[in-house]
Queue: 3 jobs
Job 1
Amino acid sequence: MGTIVGAPARTASDRMSTAALVWTAAYSAVRVWFAIGNAPQWKLPGRDLLVPDWIAVAVCLVSAAALCALRGRPRSRLLIRSLWVLAAGWVAAAAFALLDVVAGLLPGLGIPFDLPGMLSRFTALGGAVLLGATAVAYQRELDPTCLRCTGRARPTDSPRWPAWLTVAGCLTRLTAQAVVGFGTTPFEGGVSTIVFESCFVLAGVALPLTLVYRVGRFFPRWMLLLPGAGVGVGITAYFGVGLLQMITNVLQGEPAYDDVGLPESFFWVAVPAYVAWGVGLSIATYGYYLRTRKPCKGCGR
């Protein structure tokens, strides 16, 4: 009797790349629908993403092409890196999601809450997560000795300079505000403002130092990882895009920032300070993740 050979089991990379391809198809259809004149009236930046609709469609197609190419060449490190670049690009395009979170949690600040825009931006962020997860799945399969991890050893300690970079960025931002006056902030007064300012200091000083010093071991991991990753990536994306826009405006002979009653020098100090804050916090959070993660059940690393 002949042996019946079943179809090979689907790997994690197959499943993740399929999910990411479904997202690219669905989201590109939404972007085309918006591009042909059916977009809602966005409240925050004039559009939901920081790129025009047709550019978003093009990036969806590039993402799909990269996924298909990687399925054909699953050991290509260049294609795996391209997924990380595309994921970062989608995070940057949806940078106003940071304002969605702040407006939703603290409505008293006066930041407009845009539900359709928030849904669109979070859908873009979901695609970034799928692209990153697909890249991780393929990275794991590059090491045939263990399909559970990427082979990274767990460090016993992490550098402390990212935390101090974060603190420096936060304090520089506060100093810039003190120079122009704290009464010039665009937020409305009340309890929401007090809560926001408290979280501002916690995320800029207490959180980064807790991530790199031993005191962080006394907290549940999620209590540090979730705000660290969310705030770090959010600030980096939002103000990183803002800094690029400022530089572009100056090169085109335009004001670096719209007239909001503050000198341009304030933005040239505050925005880079925010970028340093976000980058430092992101690196500190990743170091904390590596240092505190459990050993791999497959290889013990």
Note: DSSP finds nine helices and no strands in the chain.
Job 2
Amino acid sequence: MLNEGWRSHSRGRDVVVGYVETYDRPNTRSQIRDLEVLPRAKLEYRGQVFEEMDLDRCCSAHPDVALVDSWPTPTFPGSRHKKRWQDVEELLEAGINVIRRSTSSTSSR
């Protein structure tokens, strides 16, 4: 996903990292290279703060392509949608192409 996003970026497309889990892996972090990583939204739930993709920020930035990791997983309570794939659907409806890791594919409408 990250390499495909970077290739798109190197061809002149506006690419942002909407959500990626690096798990502090140096190889994963290095694959982000110089791509713009959007800050995450912070959500408080039961006294803890969690981070989620900032869907509003991603939509308002309106890149050509957004990279979204872990798209079949649930989001944290307080998010607009219950699953990240629903966030992906909203990005697609906004005319933003999405590269997602789980299927190593590009989606567009």
Note: Strands lie at 15-19, 36-37, 41-45, 48-52, 65-68, 97-100, 105-107.
Job 3
Amino acid sequence: MPSPEAVLVLRSVSSFETLYLTRSTTRINDSVTSAINNYVSSKAPLGPGEGVNIARVITNELDSAKFDPLLVRTVARNGVKLLDSLVSRLDGMVSLSRFALDID
């Protein structure tokens, strides 16, 4: 059974970890949202630049959390969830009409 001091330390670290994960997820989500907003406003397909920016943000977040294997795993899971969200949002924007690419 852990000592009372160890329990206090774990609880205090847990609150910092939760705050870190919230900020990390927000940074990744901001990059995904920015890419979607650029797509919606310009009507141009997402290019390699947007993908690189999202990958860079996720890589930076993983690199920042590398001191704790469990934290890295949680950051990676959050990144996967946000990438799945990006794919779902983009799938919803794809036109399935055969006339969508009809060029005169």
Note: Residues 32 and 83 are 8 Å apart (CA to CA).
